[in-house]
Every structure is written in structure tokens, then in C-alpha cells.
Design goal:
single chain, 189 residues, alpha/beta, two-stranded parallel ribbon, 8 helices, 6 strands
């Protein structure tokens, strides 16, 4: 048992429910546009916080599902609708986190656009989660394999925090904590 909040990444409402019963406090709903409203009811009935992520398809099909009118507008509108649906069930704004889903049915340029215009998602007024750690779009920009993308991750995380993101998910915790401590010193000076 830990005092740190724990989350469960799942597409299955029953898995989320059982996880919350055994101590998880955050449900990371990775279903995206294929929303299962039963997941919303699990969050509402258990009091767990919920992260709604934009994605399309499955890991096997999402690379072909990158057609958007404007990726930032389309993702923002989806996240706004999902947040409103959750609010209607009585889930508090601060218990609903929005994740643009970097790399999930987005090509490298689309992931970069979502970072560059992150403020358009932050403006919705919900906590924003950014998960860019070691993502393929960093590899595409830097032409590096996954295990050499720490500096690229640090750059995306620092950018996201400076643009208003509230939560970041990373693999390399210690160097990213140091990066963010330095960023906070700059921002607070």
C-alpha cells in the first residue's frame, strides 16, 4: 500500500471498477473516440478521478486513422464533449483530466501541432495530462531509437508545463524532475 495516488490504464469498465475497489484512485480511460459510457459511470459511482484521452482505433489500426480537419480543434472538441458528459454525471472539474493522446492516431506533425497549440486545450479549464515520453514523434524529429529520446522528452515536457499542462507521464523520472525544478526556478524568478 502506498500513499501516492495510483491509476489504472484500461479500456474496460469492469477492470477499472475492480482496480478502484483495490486502491486505484485514478482511471485512465484509453478508449478515446470509441467511448464506453459505462466507464464514466464507474468514475461517478466510485469517486475516482478520470483521465480522458483522445485516440482512435486500436494500436494495430491507429496509424491509418490520422485524417483530421484540424487536429488541435478536433481533439479539443472531443475532449470538451467528454468533459461535459462527465460533468453531467456529477464528476467535479478537478477530477477530470484531459489527455490529447500524443502519438495515438496522430502522425509526428500532428503531435507537434498539439504541443505547439496546447494552450487551446488548457483553456478548457480542466487539468491537462501530457504523455510524450519516448514517443515515436520524438524519434522522427531526432532520428533516434526509443532508448535515446530522453532529451527530446525533456524538451516536450518543459514546453508542456510552460504552456499550462498539470501532469506529465514519463519513463525517466529523475532527470525530468530535475528539468522541471529548473523550469520552475526560471518561471518563478
Amino acid at each position: 500500500q502506498t500513499s501516492a495516488p495510483t491509476s489504472i490504464d484500461t479500456r474496460k469498465p469492469r477492470v477499472a471498477e475492480l482496480s478502484v475497489e483495490t486502491g486505484a484512485t485514478i482511471i485512465n480511460d484509453t478508449l478515446g473516440e470509441a467511448t464506453d459510457r459505462a466507464m464514466d459511470h464507474v468514475a461517478a459511482s466510485t469517486g475516482a478521478a478520470i483521465v480522458v484521452m483522445h485516440s482512435r482505433g486500436t494500436p494495430a489500426t491507429m496509424r491509418e486513422l490520422t485524417d483530421y480537419d484540424d487536429v488541435v480543434t478536433d481533439v479539443r472538441d472531443f475532449l470538451r464533449l467528454r468533459a461535459e458528459q462527465l460533468n453531467e454525471l456529477g464528476i467535479a472539474r478537478d477530477a477530470i483530466c484531459l489527455d490529447p493522446g500524443y502519438g495515438f492516431a496522430k502522425d509526428p506533425q500532428q503531435s507537434l501541432a498539439l504541443l505547439r497549440r496546447l494552450d487551446e486545450i488548457v483553456e478548457l479549464g480542466y487539468p491537462v495530462v501530457v504523455g510524450t515520453s519516448r514517443k515515436s514523434f520524438i524519434g522522427a524529429v531526432l532520428d533516434l531509437p526509443e532508448d535515446q529520446r530522453m532529451e527530446g522528452t525533456a524538451a516536450t515536457v518543459a514546453w508542456a508545463i510552460s504552456r499550462g499542462a498539470h501532469i506529465v507521464r514519463v519513463h525517466d523520472v529523475e532527470p525530468i524532475v530535475r528539468t522541471l525544478r529548473m523550469l520552475e526556478a526560471i518561471m518563478d524568478s
